[in-house]
Write a structure and sequence with these properties.
This protein is mainly beta and 193 residues long. It is 11% helix and 31% strand. It has one domain.
Length: 193
């Protein structure tokens, strides 16, 4: 008789568990989960370059070349997909006057060509924009342009080529007529908008 009560107890417990498991869930209240997504910014991290030295020749121009000191990073985190442009404008290259060379020497900014090179889209970014070499002028020149809907982070490493004409002045000496020279320096302003 004892075996009968045990079997009955197990059967009753199993029925109660199945009844609870099969009972419909009673919704007490529906709740919403909301998340705000705030727009980020549009930014560019760029660097300059040190160009190779050239020796002036009597008959032909020389090209001083260099690559940017570090990888550039362009980021569109606005989340709008609106078009953007990285542009550059610059001043003429100037070799400052020294103690003997009293006249600053210049090379026109129009002698500089910036080649943006390959633009690489980082993980999760849209397709990379296309670029082409730009001959600088005093006005802003577009280096990288999108037609819209390119979000994310992109990297590139531009090259710089400065044509030095055959009849150019050498760099001015900083002190005296030998030794350290004042290199030709230009200020290039990069703007992303």
């Amino acid at each position: 008789m004892r075996a009968c009560f045990t079997t009955l107890g197990i059967a009753a417990t199993t029925t109660l568990i199945l009844a609870l498991a099969m009972a419909p869930a009673n919704a007490i209240d529906n709740q919403e989960v909301a998340a705000s997504v705030t727009a980020g910014g549009l930014s560019a991290t760029v660097s300059g370059a040190v160009l190779s030295s050239v020796s002036l020749g009597p008959q032909s121009a020389q090209v001083a070349s260099g690559i940017s000191a570090s990888l550039w990073q362009l980021t569109d985190a606005r989340g709008s997909g609106a078009a953007w442009t990285l542009s550059a404008s610059g001043t003429d290259f100037v070799s400052a006057a020294g103690t003997e060379d009293l006249t600053p020497r210049t090379l026109p900014i129009g002698n500089l060509v910036i080649t943006p090179g390959v633009v690489t889209a980082s993980a999760g970014a849209d397709n990379a924009p296309l670029t082409s070499p730009v001959t600088m002028t005093g006005a802003a020149q577009a280096l990288v342009t999108t037609s819209g809907n390119l979000k994310g982070t992109f990297t590139l490493r531009p090259t710089f080529d400065l044509t030095v004409p055959a009849n150019a002045f050498r760099s001015n000496f900083a002190l005296g007529t030998t030794g350290t020279v004042n290199p030709y320096i230009a200020t290039i302003t990069f703007t992303i908008a």
